[in-house]
Amino acid sequence: MKILGISGSLRKSSYNTAALRAAQELLPQGVTLETFDLSPIPLYNEDIQPFPDSVQRLGERIAQSDALLIATPEYNHSIPGVLKNALDWVSRLPNQPGEGKPAALFGVSVGRFGTLRAQLHLREVCVALGMLVLPKPELYISQAEGKFDAQGRLVDASTRERVRALLEALIAWTQRVS
Ligand SMILES: Cc1cc2nc3c(=O)[nH]c(=O)nc-3n(C[C@H](O)[C@H](O)[C@H](O)COP(=O)(O)O)c2cc1C
Description:
The protein is an alpha/beta fold. The chain has one domain: 3-Layer(aba) Sandwich (Rossmann fold). It has helices at residues 15-25, 53-64, 81-92, 116-128, 157-177; strands at 2-7, 32-36, 67-71, 102-108, 132-133, 140-141. The chain is globular and about 45 Å long.
């Protein structure tokens, strides 16, 4: 099974990107998790024709994957523009790669709510693209500073277990709905 990981943060020391790296360490045998960097995706503009290469590549990687794992930061109680912008591009691709794609959402914030509000919005957007969003478990990683070390490794044992549980649920969900 091939999972594609997408982080909604572009910064090098992103906790969300680091959480995807942790997920890569926690995969069961036979499952791979590669990530897609959203940095090259331009701002959506319907006048840009044909679709930019970076958008085509994202669409291809989604189409080739069995499931998605999206890690979102929370910006002002919602999804970062970077992630919404990428999903807007994907939603216009003629082959609709998001349609019917199993997807799990999670997120890391430095605040107390662990991206709860962003994930509620992200869930709705993913449903608009036809994704089959894993209903549970929900995973909100709050107060990130205490859970990652200086090298960006997720070191909090209970959070690592929750990431593992999310992966297991996504794998079972993908087998069930595919
Ligand atoms: C523009 C902006 C808005 C933010 N708004 C929120 C917010 O609403 N809730 C929250 O918990 N954290 C908020 N934060 C703090 C983020 O949780 C923090 O920057 C986090 O590290 C972002 O994820 P990253 O490490 O993956 O880049 C905000 C940060 C930025 C830059």
